[in-house]
Amino acid sequence: MELSTKSPEAGEAIEEIEVQKEGENLTIAFNPKFIIDALRKIDTEEVEMNFVDPIKPSRMKPLNAEDYTYIVMPVRMYEEAGE
Question: Which of 11, 35, 48, 83 lies 20 to 30 Å from 42, alpha-carbon distance?
Answer without folding.
Answer: 11
